[in-house]
Amino acid sequence: MRIGVLASQGAFAEHIAILHRLEVDTVPVRLPHQLAPLDGLIIPGGESTSISRLMLSYDLMNEIRNLAKNGLPILGTCAGMILLAKEISDSDVEPIGVMDITIRRNAFGRQKDSFETDLSIPVLGEKPFPGVFIRAPVVEQTDSEVEILARLADGTSVAARQGKLLASAFHPELTNDLRFHCYFLDIVAGDQ
Amino acid sequence: MESGTWKVKTGLAQMLKGGVIMDVINAEQAKIAQETGACAVMALERVPADIRATGGVARMADPTIIEAIMKAVSIPVMAKCRIGHFVEAQALQVLGVDFIDESEVLTPADEAHHIWKHEFKVPFVCGCRDLGEALRRIGEGAAMIRTKGEAGTGNIVEAVRHMRAVTDGIRKLVNTPRDEPMALAKEMEAPFELAEEIHKTGELPVVNFAAGGVATPTDAALMMQLGADGVFVGSGIFKSSSPEVRARAIVKATTHFQDPEIIAEVSKNLGEAMPGLDIKQIPTEELLAPRGW
């Protein structure tokens, strides 16, 4: 299994480190030719405007959009979730736009409102998952094909899946809990 | 729900990696920075080159400027306070800036102590010239480190010196025998626990950016190849003849720092870089990097 990690900007090294711990072959992706052949792709946290501009500059955007439409499994965390969404309610970021979700960026406020909290994510089992939310987005609306995997206590949606696309508003790559990545690898392998 | 934790402070710095943080003095420049791909902006009243030219006491920017910049962009906004001036930092935190730079570019307010940064919910970035200085700042609660370089000169030589000094310190700690980190920590004037952590892990516990003299795409890529996690560009962009073109080029060179073909390509037709200064021609008392303790 070979997983690409988009390395335009952001916390890509953290995802690569987790995949190495899981003994998965990884490729940092900065240019279109690095996309083939991959079994899955991770779009990390970072600044979605910055990542979007960099993806547009060497036509990485269209290549990834096409691969996603053809069934490539993709995990997006935070900025990655924003980039997967078809709709972003309050900005001019051009997303890849393949998931039927509407996202609100910086939904909790500025950095002083960033927080940690334990999350219940039923698909990962009973043990709570450490949720790290940094200037995080939220899922505002979804299509019926989208499954919400995690909610905050007030009901806010913070993780979603649609087919082979998986997205979280929080940062599993900043924790030592590997279950979210394992769940994605199960999707890649066709076991989920 | 717990806010202001060490994890979310250092985590924001991790999200900035591989990116370019640009100095801006108004909303219009901030929008250009965001549009060209900056991962954050530093809101200032004057860029370092102008602070250098103007002289006098340099202080925290007028909150009106900072608020206008925060309103203009969705990327993180940083702002500078004077070394040791914890009330400027309190004010910046209330304004809602995402990161505070306790910076030697402003005139120090305390010649013995830096701010006790653990008390704040907002993360801090601080400058360093070597590993000992980096670890003292992390010990006080800095969630991100940058080289000091020599701000406002457009001359990369000091940033290179500082980045190499940090790397050299890490190498020495890693290679020292198990029973000798204490002597090295003493020599480096570094907190022992952090020196010991580096002896074990071989890496800094926080993100380390390059700053102070980056003026071209090649400067940015040079610092990345020397091990920087990202770059700050101060006067280098908006003191050049074509800020937008240069900003885009520096952003691309930072991402593609290992790709000389792309770096050569983006270096074409950038117009005039900011006028540079030879460090040796600057009177010692006007150097910014020695500020900080």
| Total tally of structural domains of chain A | 1
User: Can you tell me the CATH topology of chain A?
Assistant: Rossmann fold
Read across the widest sheet of chain A, the strand sequence of neighbours is 2-1-3-4-12-11-10
Terminal CA distance of chain A: 16 Å
Which CATH architecture of chain A would you pick?
Answer: 3-Layer(aba) Sandwich
What is the overall silhouette of chain A?
globular
Radius of gyration of chain A: 15 Å
> How large is the radius of gyration of chain B?
18 Å
Number of helices in the DSSP assignment of chain A: 5
Oligomeric assembly: heterodimer
Q: Would you tell me the structural class of the helices and strands of chain B?
A: alpha/beta
Q: State the low-pLDDT regions of chain B, or none.
A: none
Give me a quick take on this structure.
The complex is a heterodimer of chains A (192) and B (293). Chain A has 192 residues and is of the alpha/beta class. Chain A has helices at residues 12-21, 48-57, 60-69, 79-84, 179-189; strands at 2-6, 25-29, 40-43, 74-77, 85-88, 99-104, 115-119, 129-133, 138-142, 147-151, 157-162, 165-168.
Please describe what this structure looks like.
The complex is a heterodimer of chains A (192) and B (293). Chain A has 192 residues and is α/β, with parallel strands linked by helices. Chain A has helices at 12-21, 48-57, 60-69, 79-84, 179-189, and strands at residues 2-6, 25-29, 40-43, 74-77, 85-88, 99-104, 115-119, 129-133, 138-142, 147-151, 157-162, 165-168. Chain A has a single domain, classed as Rossmann fold (3-Layer(aba) Sandwich), CATH 3.40.50.880. A seven-stranded mixed β-sheet of chain A has the order 2-1-3-4-12-11-10. In chain A, strands 5-6-9 form a three-stranded mixed β-sheet. Chain A starts with a strand and ends with a helix. By secondary structure, chain B is an alpha/beta fold. Chain B contains 13 helices and nine strands. An eight-stranded parallel β-sheet of chain B has the order 8-7-6-5-4-3-2-9. In chain B, α2 links the parallel β2 (20-24) and β3 (40-43). The longest helix of chain B has 19 residues, at 157-175. At the A-B interface, α1, α2 and β7 of A face β1, α1 and α12 of B. β7 (115-119) of chain A pairs antiparallel with β1 (2-3) of chain B, so a sheet runs across the interface.
